[in-house]
């Protein structure tokens, strides 16, 4: 998969996708063997995203399952968060999309503490109206705690003046 790490190599591999079942099987196996690294590489992730659009249902299922397993690690990576947002947006199969949305809402607290993870939470919040309530429920205790801490800090600062 080293070839997919640069723009030219990624583009050439993307052109091979969909040419034959054998090539698709080989590339899918290669992607799955180092899935987390592929999804967090700037150029290699484009090849994986194209594969999700082109592969047959069996290969797509395997890739979505890997995405669900590695959601936290992918979301908290500079390039992975972009790839994960695209997977969520471009998902053709409602079951896989809903599964990813459920995972993101379930780990929203952890994701919101990370710069790149927060990007994924915001993407889900803006693109999934049904997820907003679940995300708010996950984050409400933190908001209350931060609000209380903020008020106590304001009191300390005000008294010290």
Automatic annotation (TrEMBL):
SUPFAM superfamilies (UniProt xref):
ARM repeat
Question: Keywords, A to Z?
Answer: Cytoplasm, Repeat, RNA-binding, Translation regulation
Q: Which InterPro entries match?
A: ARM-like, ARM-type_fold, PUM-HD, Pumilio_RNA-bd_rpt
Report the superkingdom from the record: Eukaryota
Enumerate the subcellular locations listed in this protein's record, separating them with semicolons.
Cytoplasm
- The UniProt entry lists the main location of this chain as cytoplasm
Q: Which residues does the UniProt record annotate as the domain PUM-HD? A: 1-161
What Pfam family does this protein match (any one)? Answer: PUF
Protein name in UniProt: PUM-HD domain-containing protein
Tell me what organism the protein belongs to: Brassica napus
């Amino acid at each position: 998969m080293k070839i997919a790490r640069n723009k030219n190599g990624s583009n050439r591999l993307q052109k091979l996708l969909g040419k034959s079942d054998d090539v698709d099987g080989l590339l899918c196996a290669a992607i799955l063997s180092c899935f987390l690294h592929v999804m967090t590489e700037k150029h290699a992730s484009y090849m994986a995203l194209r594969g999700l659009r082109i592969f047959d249902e069996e290969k797509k299922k395997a890739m979505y399952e890997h995405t669900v397993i590695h959601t936290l690690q992918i979301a908290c990576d500079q390039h992975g968060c972009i790839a994960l947002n695209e997977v969520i947006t471009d998902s053709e199969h409602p079951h896989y999309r809903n599964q990813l949305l459920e995972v993101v809402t379930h780990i929203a607290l952890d994701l919101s503490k990370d710069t790149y993870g927060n990007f994924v939470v915001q993407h889900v919040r803006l693109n999934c109206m049904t997820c907003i309530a679940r995300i708010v429920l996950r984050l409400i205790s933190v908001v209350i705690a931060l609000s209380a801490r903020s008020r106590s800090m304001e009191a300390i600062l005000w008294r010290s003046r």
